Automatic annotation (TrEMBL):
It is a lipid-anchor; GPI-anchor. Residues 26-396 form the Trypanosome variant surface glycoprotein A-type N-terminal domain. It comes from Trypanosoma brucei. GO terms for biological process: symbiont-mediated evasion of host immune response. Its main location: membrane. Residues 1-17 form the signal peptide. This is Variant surface glycoprotein 1125.4297. It is found in: Cell membrane. VSG forms a coat on the surface of the parasite. The trypanosome evades the immune response of the host by expressing a series of antigenically distinct VSGs from an estimated 1000 VSG genes. Residues 396-408 have a biased composition (Basic and acidic residues). InterPro entries: Trypano_VSG_A_N_dom, VSG_C_dom_sf. It comes from the Eukaryota.
Length: 484
């Protein structure tokens, strides 16, 4: 059966299905609530790719280990099977790398807008704490000379009582009656840059007269002073600042057009540009980023049943195996049952069987590393840098070349000796007598006939090509096939 899915994908954020709007976003009642909600939004958005990035790092490490094991393997079949595993890991790694590349830009854009909104809210919090008071002490001036003007100095500071406090990043709390569920924000109250000045609240300056003040409302400042008699002087002078309500400087931003989170962006934000008000740009960025469906391609299990359904592994094994070199569509297991069966058997029935088969090739294998002028054999699972990997691959390639040269020399020597034996065999074959046979150099009488004497011994058990091992010892029977 054709594998329905070659890579296991894990969904980090679902973009579909009925979702309930977060009530905390609409219960924001002060600038500190808004800052706390933005803080949670920022953490959520910045973590959307965390799982994928962690998996990428793990797969890069796994791929490095497998490639080193492949380079260190002395048998062609082992190298081919390790190549299949490397292909499966590389495929998942490529999918994850593409996921990061495709989504990182949108995430960064959202984070940029959230950060800018946080700056606006920080300014609103600072403004909301401004307290204006009549300056204490003898610093005021009355009319003197030709000036009939009283000057009252005012002092401002950040001590307005009753203002909110920022929640530390490592703490959690409710907004209104709900814990923030930022992934499902639908409508949110945000500070509007155009209204930021209103966060400073309103200050009332008052002068208390001795008596005879009218109580008429809605007067100008001059009329208000004229309505009182100050013949006996002012009884009291003061200033009182009243904190602004959060609604004075905020705007409700609708993110989605429907009644629940997800789907089409609301008309208020969908056409936002870089010239739109900052809070509108935030709404558009949130609409885009919170709809993302981030999937992570997991590293496949290393076992036969899993890898026989992995298209990348099947294709890689077929490409490096003489037995399956003519297979045109390796991933189609409905037509390539032999390849699929081979892969299932070769990798083992489960992860435990795989480990038993390949532990000596991967977990226990060491590679040469030169450090401080000394070459040491380092376990390949401990090779963690690209520099060490490159160095180890170079040394292993050198070893492989030396093995191949040794095998080629041994094969050449074998062929030369076989040729000599063949020629000598022709000379010896003409002698029927035992004594005359012995008199001839290089001949011996054996099994009732005169034969060439075999004296050469060549031994090698190096396999670099995937063919059967070369094993040539002193037993002349091993050379018999050259004499026929």
């Amino acid at each position: 059966m054709t594998p329905a899915l070659a890579i296991l994908l894990v969904v980090t954020v679902a973009a579909s299905g009925q979702r309930k709007a977060d009530p905390a976003a609409t219960e924001i009642s002060n600038a500190c609530d808004e800052e706390y909600y933005l803080q949670k939004l920022k953490h959520h958005v910045s973590s959307l790719l965390d799982r994928t990035k962690r998996t990428i790092a793990e797969q890069q490490s796994e791929l490095r280990k497998i490639r080193l094991a492949q380079a260190a393997a002395t048998e062609h079949e082992h190298r081919c099977l390790l190549h299949g595993i490397a292909a499966a890991v590389a495929e998942a790694l490529e999918v994850n790398t593409r996921t990061v590349q495709n989504n990182e830009g949108m995430i960064d854009t959202a984070l940029k807008h959230i950060s800018k909104q946080q700056q606006t809210v920080a300014a609103a919090i600072a403004l909301s704490k401004i307290n204006t008071k009549v300056t204490t002490g003898n610093v005021h001036t009355g009319g003197s000379g030709t000036s009939d003007k009283v000057t009252i100095k005012l002092t401002t500071d950040g001590t307005l009582p009753g203002t909110c406090s920022i929640t530390p990043a490592d703490q959690t709390r409710t907004i209104g009656t709900a814990q923030p569920d930022v992934a499902n924000v639908h409508t949110i109250k945000l500070t509007a840059e155009a209204k930021l000045y209103k966060a400073a609240g309103q200050t009332e300056f008052s002068v208390t007269a001795g008596a005879s003040c009218s109580t008429t409302a809605a007067q100008t400042a001059e009329q208000a002073f004229t309505s009182c008699t100050f013949a006996g002087g002012a009884q009291a002078v003061g200033a009182t600042t009243t904190a602004a309500a959060h609604t004075d400087y905020t705007t409700a931003i609708n993110i989605y057009s429907g009644s629940s989170p997800g789907g089409e962006c609301h008309a208020d934000v969908k056409s936002a540009t870089s010239n739109s008000p900052q809070e509108i740009q935030v709404g558009k960025a949130l609409c885009d980023v919170l709809k993302l469906q981030i999937t992570t391609a997991e590293t496949p299990n290393f076992d036969g049943p899993t890898l026989q359904g992995n298209g990348a592994a099947l294709t890689a094994v077929a490409a490096c195996s003489k037995r399956f070199k003519d297979v045109l569509k390796p991933a189609d297991t409905t037509k390539n049952t032999q390849l699929s069966s081979y892969v299932k058997e070769a990798y083992g029935s489960d992860t435990a069987a795989f480990k038993k088969k390949f532990a000596s090739l991967i977990d226990d294998k060491k590679a040469p590393i030169v450090s401080e002028g000394k070459t040491t054999m380092k376990p390949i699972k401990e090779v963690t840098s690209a520099a060490e990997e490159t160095q180890a691959l170079g040394h292993l390639e050198k070893q492989r070349t030396e093995r191949e040269e040794e095998a080629a020399q041994a094969k050449s020597t074998l062929a030369t000796e076989a040729e000599k034996v063949s020629e000598k065999g022709k000379e010896c074959k003409g002698e029927a007598g035992k004594d005359k046979c012995k008199e001839k150099d290089g001949c011996e009488f054996k099994d009732g006939e005169c034969k060439a004497k075999v004296t050469t011994a060549v031994t090698t058990n190096t396999n670099t090509t995937g063919s059967s091992f070369f094993v040539i010892n002193k037993d002349p029977l091993l050379l018999a096939f050259f004499l026929t």
